[in-house]
Amino acid sequence: MDTTTTSGQILVTRDNQVTTITISNPKRRNAISNPMATELKNAILSCKDDDSRVVILTGDGDHFCAGADLDPNLVNGQPFDVTEFLRNNYNPMVMAMREMDKIFIAKVRGNCVGAAFNFVLACDLIYSSTTSKFSQIFTRIGLSSDGGGAYFMPERLGYHKSLELMALNKMVMADEAEKLGLVNQVIEDSELDEYVRNLANSLKEGPFIAIRNTKRNLRVAIKQGLAAGLEMEAISQGENFKSNDFFEGISAFVQKRKPNYKGE
User: For the whole model, what pTM was predicted?
Assistant: First the structure.
């Protein structure tokens, strides 16, 4: 296991092709300051070139993240170009999570609001404990969404429900989030760590070329429509047919045994 610490508030642990990125500012419910946002972006982008297959995004302690830790100087009228900040930090981070051919899993406890909620929605799979609370909280302090909420919320809920939750900054409890399709599953808090760990291991030990290509197929079809999705499926299936995993899967099926995939 190799653990590296960036600012001391973004912790990166790499263990046998599973990377865990932990937002660690527990005294402020893991709220993300501007320097932390840059460190978080760098941690996520660094996964592109390592050997990890699965990336777990989580928070330290009882909460995932209370959103942006806004600088008090903003209230005093200090100049700050938020547009450039978002372009340089949040936007490339969110795009990388969706575009990277790795599986991102969000593991959520407690408060998950504002930009942090949207970072979670950018993940491929989302699992929360029964303690989780979600909110697009921006309008409570006179802001509109950032971090991809304008895309991710209607992707799951449609326009009308998204506007209701976002404009009225409603708090969504874990069970409702599951019913709405905002999370994959709600799990008892005491079982969440083991569940996500087992899931990550299952994914990285599976036929990873096929898993990676499945994410790519979905991404292309959602962004570009049916025709592009069909073409990408054809390309991906060609890659799968040439992989050792495909031959191992067929052999295991015929021999009635568990396959031993290598992701090759």
Answer: 0.94
